[in-house]
Amino acid sequence: MNHLDAFRQDTRAWLEANCPEGVRGPGQVAWGSRRIELEPDVRLWLARMAEKGWTVPTWPKAYGGAELDKAEYQVLISELKRIRARTPLTGRGVNYIGPTLLEYGNEEQKARWLPGIARGEGGWAMGYSEPGAGSDLASLSTRAVRDGDRFIINGRKIWTSDAMDCDYIFVLVRTNPDAPKHQGISLILVDMHQPGVQVRPIRLLSGASPFNETLFEDAIAPASDLVGGIDNGWTVGKRLLQFERSTHAGINISGAQGGRTAESRLPQIVKRYAPLANGAIADPELRTWLIRVEQNGHAQRLTQKRVIEEVQARAPGFASSAVKLTNALQVQDSHELILAAMGSQGIGWEGAAFSPDEIEATRTWLRDKSLTIAGGTKDIQRNIIAKRVLGLPD
Ligand SMILES: Cc1cc2nc3c(=O)[nH]c(=O)nc-3n(C[C@H](O)[C@H](O)[C@H](O)COP(=O)(O)OP(=O)(O)OC[C@H]3O[C@@H](n4cnc5c(N)ncnc54)[C@H](O)[C@@H]3O)c2cc1C
Predict the structure, then answer these.
(1) Is the shortest distance between the CB of 366 and ligand 1 below 6 Å?
(2) Which long-range contacts (CB under 8 A, 24 or more apart) does 294-299 make?
(3) Which numbered atom of ligand 1 lies nearest the CA of 129?
(4) Domains plus CATH for the chain?
């Protein structure tokens, strides 16, 4: 038996013995937050996988990983999918700041932060956008001033997803207001459990509030939590954005991806709502639309797979912008199709006239409009593709 077959056999046996029934199939997934209580099976699954190094399978063992190579990693993922196991850990810790620290952190920072991130000890927020700095991120004005062995931070971040449940935040701050705007920025790690950091929820149209304003009023961060050197935050911060886009695109291979399913349920969903004739969708326009979305979805999944197989580094470079963009457009197109199939049942927001599934479909359609804004708008992705992938002039 060759090495990979033996690895598969051992992995399968270990997963059978250690993956609790309660995490097979959809449900709660840990993302590190100390403020959210985990179901017992989810907590157990996280602890067992972290012990094995399989919450971040490709990371070095010294930092909580298992140093799996690409082939072993793919075996692990396929075995997780085989038993429909949920990913043991996700979030901005393992997917964004962890891989960034692996590349830009010094030894002390890696040893201090990465093992805890791999064990899911603390949820991370992303402090990039400001009221005057979204697409034009380099215009940010939150200030960090060095004071002995610490930084004092003042300013206002906006659209900080999940901040109310986070324990730490990585923040892009201005450390040198006299330098050209891309050159006076730094990336700093900040503990959110301090009086200088305040989180204000932003209520959305849906009534939910996953977004926040995060205010820094004399917030403190140790100088040792500056990542990648002073005034080098633009380079570090852009690399983190690539990890974010790769995650949005489903092609990040640095963290845990188990349980992700490649199968499309779209035909069943459309058939549940659309009028049928002899078991087939009666409306030819809907049929053509479904075929197009399914073909695009298949092409998307193959492209993701190809990009994952091609990359040597932990995350692909500018190709992640292309896959993120097409993924977002594809998801939005499929929701439009579902709503078209639902007809007047697809406008339900609440009330007894609509089933919970119908209400959920409408809300998902609306919520996923944000996919072409979050992590950089579709226009910004197109700019990046034009410049960095196609080499077109500015
Ligand atoms: C679901 C979601 C989650 C988010 N979570 C976070 C988070 O956790 N942390 C965080 O820091 N931020 C977060 N954001 C904010 C997000 O990064 C910004 O919304 C995004 O970068 C766009 O910035 P903006 O909203 O200021 O829009 P603007 O930059 O003001 O853009 C307005 C419009 O102008 C267009 N535009 C701007 N510049 C150009 C250009 N150069 N070329 C062509 N068109 C252009 C844009 O495409 C857009 O259509 C989140 C956003 C969403 C929707």
Answers:
(1) no
(2) 294/264, 294/266, 294/267, 296/326, 296/330, 296/333, 297/264, 297/266, 297/330, 297/334, 298/264
(3) 11
(4) 3-102 (1.10.540.10), 124-231 (2.40.110.10), 262-389 (1.20.140.10)
What b/e readout covers 94-104, taking b as 16+ CB neighbours within 10 angstroms? bbbbbbbbbbb
Ligand 1 pocket residue status of 372, Cβ below 6 Å = no
* Cα 362 from Cα 353, distance rounded (Å): 13
Six-digit token pair at 261? 């399913």
Angle (nearest 5°) at CA 240 between 235 and 244: 145
Q: Is 126 in the pocket of ligand 1 (CB under 6 A)?
A: yes
Distance between CA atoms of 129 and 106, rounded to whole angstroms? 26
User: Is the CB–ligand 1 distance for residue 377 below 6 Å?
Assistant: yes
Angle at 86 between CA 84 and CA 88, to 5 degrees: 145
Q: Which helix (H) or strand (E) holds 124?
A: strand 124-127
Cα→Cα distances 332→210, 297, 354, 361, Å: 20, 11, 22, 12
- What are 173's strand-pairing partners? 186
Please list the pLDDT of the chain residue by residue as tens digits (394 residues).
899 999 999 999 999 999 999 999 999 999 999 999 999 999 999 999 999 999 999 999 999 999 999 899 989 989 998 999 999 999 999 999 999 999 999 999 999 999 999 999 999 999 999 999 999 999 999 999 999 999 999 999 999 999 999 999 999 999 999 999 999 999 999 999 999 999 999 987 666 778 899 999 999 999 999 999 999 999 999 999 999 988 888 776 665 554 455 568 899 999 999 999 999 999 999 999 999 999 999 998 888 888 877 765 566 678 888 889 999 999 999 999 999 999 999 998 889 999 999 999 999 998 899 999 999 999 999 999 999 889 999 8
CA nearest ligand 1 atom 13, residue? 159
Provide φ and ψ at 22, rounded to 5°: -65, -10
Structure tokens at 372: 């072409």
- Going by alpha carbons, the residue nearest to atom 35 of ligand 1 is 379
The residues assigned a catalytic role are 244
Q: What gap in Å lies between CA 233 and CA 258, rounded to an integer? A: 31
Cα–Cα distance for residue pair 122/179, rounded to 1 Å: 34
